[in-house]
Write a structure and sequence with these properties.
The chain has 482 residues and is α/β, with parallel strands linked by helices. Helices cover 39% and strands 18% of the residues. The strands form 3 sheets. It has a 9-stranded mixed sheet with strand order 3-4-5-2-1-6-7-11-12, sandwiched between helices. Strand 14, helix 13 and strand 15 form a beta-alpha-beta unit. Helix 4 packs across helix 6, helix 6 crosses helix 7 and helix 12 runs parallel beside helix 13. The radius of gyration is 23 Å and the shape is globular. The two termini are 19 Å apart. The model has no long low-confidence stretch (mean pLDDT 96).
């Protein structure tokens, strides 16, 4: 089976979040099942720098007013097709925003050209290559199914995966005339969305199947609280919507061989984690003693519940726990957490920014990790934590609910718990959740059982990759019978 994956980022070339981890790890898992993946990726400067041996495989004089080249490259086991359009993608800032953090004003053009190029590749623009199915990720790739549906060439079936429905790619109606779509696409059945152009909406409307990154999130987005205005469309297409939980790359996240850890340890035991705990405490200048050392590795945003954390810090410290925080985001939340660190020296510390090796060390050394998200489509942090013996304390939402077994009375009695679910999310619930974890930690035997349960949980891509392969095959079979 030949799969064309369309994504705006992929690890280890370019990453802003979990999307890159998924698109970077899933191809290897699918390959074991007989699925050959080629990934279409924008030619950002960061990508081109890491692909010096990329070769020209096609040229197009005009896609959306830009000359576009397609480069082929193989890096870190990934088979890449890079959409090179210097005026669109070779910039000093990030993939979506400039050095000041402001979204590029022409993102609609950048990712419409990207999606159009992907659709052309999907319909045979590269000599000798035509995929059996197309898998598109988030709004940046979402016009690809629309171009396939409204195009004139026979097209393979497409799958649209929602990693976070809050990010939709909504732009002014005036840009529609420059997208290269027929007039019929300006409709409820096309890309029109409340009088504007909706990239994600168009992809969800046009794709043959829709997936989200956890079963619970697939149910949640049918409601207004989580659907972000698209719940009507999701309900209308409920028959083609499914949730497939993410996995992690267990070669990258392997505590036995991870170079970021101060002391490696086997995934069958938590022995030797103490060396990493000491390294985390030293790095952050913390003195946690025997109290619970809690990690927070996240974007500092409202979605992630960081405003509630800022409110809960004093209560957490009063109960004897310490906090090591790594992340960046909303400046007000960064300041609030920095002030909390100043109030509690030696007990609370924050490093603003993102540091991948440090994130690994924190997972391998902290006792627990706190993930109080208001919504979380899947979440990868808690999966990494489970594998590294770091007990998750999570909101009961999305993939967090699907992947962490709550340490309630039944879970503890049965010896199956892997973490803690917070009650209805609030600052008080966070304080109580951390206190509950600390209480179980004082019962060394119960805590050791939880840690072991987490470390032996299957967080690989194997089962999920099989579900994707079966979905792809079903779409191919249906199209063949049509």
């Amino acid at each position: 089976m030949k799969l064309l994956s369309v994504a705006s980022e992929i690890f280890p070339l370019i990453k802003t979040g979990g999307l890159a981890d998924v698109t970077g790890a899933l191809p290897a898992a699918l390959e074991k099942l007989g699925v050959q993946t080629r990934t279409v990726l924008p030619g950002y400067s960061q990508v081109l720098d890491k692909c010096p041996k990329a070769k020209l495989v096609a040229e197009f004089a005009n896609i959306g007013g830009h000359a576009v080249s397609i480069l082929g490259a193989k890096v870190a086991g990934l088979d890449l097709l890079i959409v090179k359009a210097p005026g669109l993608f070779e910039r000093d800032g990030g993939p979506y925003a400039d050095l000041n953090g402001a979204d590029y004003g022409d993102n609609w053009r950048r990712f419409s050209v990207f999606a159009k190029a992907a659709a052309m590749i999907a319909t045979g623009a590269l000599k000798g290559y035509k995929p059996d199915v197309v898998h598109c990720h988030d709004w940046q790739a979402a016009l690809t199914p629309a171009y396939l549906r409204f195009g004139t060439e026979p097209a393979p079936p497409s799958v649209m995966t929602i990693h976070n429905i809050a990010f939709q790619g909504q732009f002014a109606a005036q840009v529609f005339g420059e997208l290269g779509l027929p007039a019929s696409a300006w409709s409820f059945d096309g890309v029109e969305y409340y009088g504007s152009v909706g990239f994600l909406k168009g992809g969800l409307q046009a794709a043959d199947a829709i997936t989200t990154v956890s079963p619970t999130y697939a149910r949640e987005i049918r409601n207004a609280e989580f659907g972000m205005g698209l719940e009507g469309l999701i309900n209308a297409r409920a028959g083609v919507v499914s949730g497939i939980v993410n996995g992690i790359d267990t070669d990258v996240w392997n505590p036995e061989t991870d170079p970021a850890l101060a002391t490696g340890f086997a995934t069958r035991t938590s022995a030797r984690r103490s060396g990493n705990r000491k390294a985390v405490a030293k790095h952050f200048g913390l003195k946690p003693g025997d109290g619970l050392l809690v990690a927070i590795v996240t974007r500092l945003t409202w979605q992630k519940g960081m405003d509630l954390l800022a409110e809960a810090v004093d209560g957490i410290v009063a109960n004897g726990a310490s906090l090591a925080i790594l992340g960046s985001g909303d400046k007000g939340l960064e300041n609030a957490l920095q002030q909390a660190a100043q109030r509690h020296p030696g007990r609370v510390a924050i490093q603003v920014g993102y540091d991948e090796p440090l994130a690994h060390l924190m997972q391998g050394g902290c006792d627990a990790i706190l993930v109080p998200s208001r919504f979380e489509p899947c979440g990868l942090t808690q999966l990494c934590a489970l594998r590294y013996g770091c007990v998750p304390i999570v909101a009961r939402t999305g993939g967090l609910a699907d992947t962490v077994i709550d340490a309630n009375m039944a879970g503890l009695a049965a010896g199956i718990a892997t973490g803690f679910h917070l009650g209805p999310l609030s600052a008080r619930a966070i304080v109580e959740g951390v206190a509950d974890a600390a209480a179980v930690k004082r019962d060394g035997k119960a805590w050791a059982r939880m840690v072991k349960n987490g470390m032996t949980t299957d967080v690989t891509w194997q089962a999920s990759a099989e579900r994707y392969r079966n979905l792809f095959q079903d779409l191919i079979d249906r199209q063949a019978k049509a």
